[in-house]
Specification:
Largest sheet: 4 strands, antiparallel
Distance between the termini: 38 Å
Radius of gyration: 17 Å
Order of helices and strands: HEEHHHEEH
Shape: globular
Oligomer: single chain
Number of helices: 5
Helix content: 25-40%
Strand content: 15-25%
Length: 162
């Protein structure tokens, strides 16, 4: 079982801040371990005061739900009461935020944490998070909910199974 070290978290944060600066944004970045506990959170000069808390909630969501926030959005939209209740559970340390800029950190097929970016637009937060993790070799592919094993083979071009 792998763990997310402070050194790895700092590298993720550095990569995210580098990408944010390249588009002229001051974003807060949070990295949590697989249990949703903070490893590192950084708010640069110019980032709005609430952004570290938002980034942490995004990272927490990605880690404990074991899927990026964008994968959770449709589920949240179809089950809003369920999602609002998740944040009220006695064991919930943070609100559940199914949104952009919330990415699960996965390496060698294992979920080791969550990354949250807050301070840009939804699309900017998402792009910063994806580019930061991809640049460091983390995996960005996740199976759809309820799918086990290998994905079903694609149908043949003729529409008949091979």
């Amino acid at each position: 079982m792998s763990s997310l070290t402070l050194d790895a978290a700092e590298k993720i944060i550095d990569a995210a801040h580098q990408r944010a600066r390249s588009i002229g944004k001051a974003v807060s970045v949070a990295v949590v371990d697989a249990g949703g506990f903070p490893v590192a959170i950084r708010r640069p000069d110019g980032a709005r005061p609430l952004t570290p808390d938002i980034a942490r909630a995004k990272a927490y969501t990605a880690a404990i739900m074991q899927r990026p926030g964008t994968m959770l959005k449709k589920w949240q939209e179809s089950q809003p009461v369920f999602f609002s209740q998740l944040s009220q559970l006695p064991g919930a340390a943070m609100p559940i935020m199914a949104t952009e800029g919330s990415l699960t950190i996965k390496k060698d097929g294992e979920i080791i944490g969550g990354l949250g970016i807050a301070g840009g637009t939804a699309d900017e937060d998402q792009r910063i998070a994806e580019e930061a993790l991809a640049s460091l070799g983390y995996e960005l592919e996740f199976a759809a909910w309820g799918v086990t094993g290998n994905p079903a083979p694609a149908p043949s071009p003729s529409g008949k199974d091979a």
